[in-house]
Design a protein that fits this description.
3 domains, 3-stranded antiparallel sheet, alpha+beta, endopeptidase fold (from Nostoc punctiforme), 365 residues, 10 strands
Length: 365
């Protein structure tokens, strides 16, 4: 994997030098750009549409060692916040699962969790990140970046890898900053809705504000506990939908997005319960009851109507995913899947946040 990345990087550096996009050089000292700026500029010249699977995208997004080794912790924080596939962190059934998936995939985040003072610098970014009160005063790109960067910071700082670095006083300062942000965002519900209080939701692993649990049945008659969405629950605002939609479109340009982001249902609910997404209000935390209900059988290859299970191999299933096969043509498997509490997408089996070499299993009723 690393060998392939070095070939891609070499080609991009050559192209950048040839066309004068950026004055890349072998070391930060010989460039007008700092190491983090060089990494960001390198990412900006990549056409993600040329990649047909997530493994190669992640591979091409690693920070080259010669830049990573030169970065200060402040520069590394900036580089991590501009990692193209940090957006994957929001596509899982839990924020913890999303964070762990990105941590496993990205060398920049692996390095950041080891750096002394990283949490304090992340908290500084959180505390100084603006809440844009006059959205008409900025263009959409600035607004969308502001919304997404705030969400990334909330989720990362809520994880034990960073929270445990903080002193009690530093943690109290974060809580004060979060409360102030929530108060400001509360004055603009048309802009800030689902992301308001995201730090607390990530800390408590409350992906959404479901208040009703109920039991439904699998086709084989097995009980499944689901969380039911109600009219009193808060979904994403139009601006938040536009912001995360913009990020997913740019990182997964070959996918077809069938529905905007919503918290009403998740991947397991779509794949196993109902593909009528406009009427689906159930969040299913675990797909195992369907796979083990006696009416479902595992098969060796996918076909239309089959469920694909992306198995993370863990007991708690924090990083698993389900998809529904809609087409198999010339060996290419096309599925539809719901990406956490984000978008509903039609994509090839390998071009999604969950394809990283893990075991794929196929099930049929």
């Amino acid at each position: 994997m690393k060998k392939r990345f070095r070939r891609i990087t070499s080609a991009l550096l050559s192209a950048a030098l040839m066309f004068g996009c950026v004055g890349f050089s072998a070391s930060a000292e010989q460039s007008n750009l700092s190491p983090d700026e060089q990494y960001i500029a390198l990412m900006e010249v990549i056409d993600w549409g040329e990649f047909d699977n997530h493994v190669d995208k992640v591979n091409a997004s690693q920070i080259p060692d010669y830049l990573l080794n030169q970065m200060t912790t402040e520069q590394l924080v900036n580089a991590v916040l501009h990692y193209p596939y940090l957006i994957d962190m929001l596509a899982y059934n839990t924020y913890e699962g999303g964070f762990q998936a990105v941590l496993e995939d990205f060398n920049g985040l692996q390095e950041l969790v080891k750096r002394e003072g990283a949490a304090k610098l992340l908290s500084k970014h959180m505390e100084t990140a603006p809440v844009i009160l006059n959205t008409r005063s900025v263009n959409n790109d600035v607004l969308y970046d502001s919304i997404m960067q705030s969400m990334f910071l909330d989720v990362m700082l809520a994880q034990p890898e960073f929270v445990n670095q903080l002193s009690e006083q530093e943690f109290e300062e974060i809580l004060a900053a979060v409360d102030e942000k929530i108060e400001l965002q509360g004055t603009l519900p048309e802009t800030y809705s689902g992301s308001t209080g995201l730090f607390y939701k990530a800390m408590g692993e409350q992906i959404d504000t479901y208040t009703v649990n109920k039991i439904i049945k699998t086709p084989g008659g097995k009980d499944v506990t689901v969380r039911e969405w109600t009219s009193s629950d808060k979904d994403w605002s139009a601006q938040e939908i536009a912001a995360n939609g913009s990020y997913y479109h740019s990182r997964y340009p070959n996918a077809v997005f069938l529905q905007n982001s919503t918290k009403r249902y998740n991947c397991h609910s779509y794949a196993w319960y109902s593909q009528t997404h406009n009427n689906n209000n159930y969040w299913i935390p675990n797909a195992v009851p369907y796979m083990t209900d006696g009416a479902c059988r595992q098969i060796v290859s996918p076909s239309t109507g089959v469920r694909v299970y992306y198995d993370d191999g863990s007991y708690d299933k924090l990083e698993d995913h389900s998809a529904y096969v809609v087409r198999v043509s010339s060996g290419v498997v096309t599925v539809v899947s719901k990406w956490g509490n984000m978008v509903l997408a039609e994509h090839t089996m390998a071009d999604c946040p969950y394809y990283n070499g893990r075991t794929l299993r196929y099930y049929k009723y």
